[in-house]
Amino acid sequence: MSTKKTTSKNNNKLIKLEDLNWKQIDKLDRDKTVFFQPISPLEVHGPHLPVGTDLLTAQDTATAAVKILQQKKPELNYVLLPTLPVGYCKFAVDFPGTISLNSRAIKDIVYSVGSSLATQGFKYLIICTYHMAIPHLKGIYSAMKKIRSKYNMRTCEPWGPYFYSDKIEKNEPKLGFDTSKEMHAGFRETSLMKYQYPYLVDESYKNLQNVYRNLSSPRVIGKTFKQLGLTEGYVGSPARADADYGRWFFNETVNVYVNATIEVYQGKKPDDLPRYIKTAMKALFWR
Ligand SMILES: [Zn+2]
Known about the structure:
- With 287 residues, the chain is an alpha/beta fold.
- Helices cover 39% and strands 7% of the residues.
- The chain contains nine helices and five strands.
- Strand 4, helix 4 (134-150) and strand 5 (154-156) form a beta-alpha-beta unit.
- Helix 2 (53-72) crosses helix 8.
- The relative contact order is 0.17.
- Bound molecules: zinc ion.
- Zinc ion binds next to helix 2.
């Protein structure tokens, strides 16, 4: 809690859509209100991290981004939508607690959120997901495309384009090993959770062996984690986890959300997914 005195009264209050009545929502300036939709599935994250790792991170980074935006651009309203525990992770569904939806369902859900708000005249929607599986992004990106084509609404998903660029490796603190191989519940995410929720990280992480697989390779498409020999449900080196790196990773995500939101509001074209991801997305059947 900050003890600093602040002159603004309402600016620091986090607005959650579920707390408002329709009259209050109706009073929000359509041209100056940005909605944030955190969305990520419940999914195995090794034997040491909670299945809500992506969901909690998407929700917390969105919340932190709103708090910064309230200071940076206090003339806008920011509304947080309830987090959707939704995503495609069929490759991990043989682990207890993993819940997977198909891409088509994800598209319908995201489109429904956007089209409902757009029908009410709202214009800005930021999708915050921490789950980067291609069939999951296919659902989200197809929904955003449809929203943009049917309504006067600007929408973007900021993390995918950043995650699939080389920006993390360029910007991160130098560690002496390749963190791009930390694909799932490895060093990056274990660090993140050690920073955010140390009490949810099982101490067994310290003894986990390094496990590497290229999950972006076309050869793994259609295979489950277990078929790939990932019997513990992680890829990378969780034992190296470090809360300081976790803080950096968390704040980096928040900055990406903040900058993308300002760009979208200013009418700039947000960063797009790299071509190889778009090609992979197109080639995928709806599943
Ligand atoms: Zn994750």
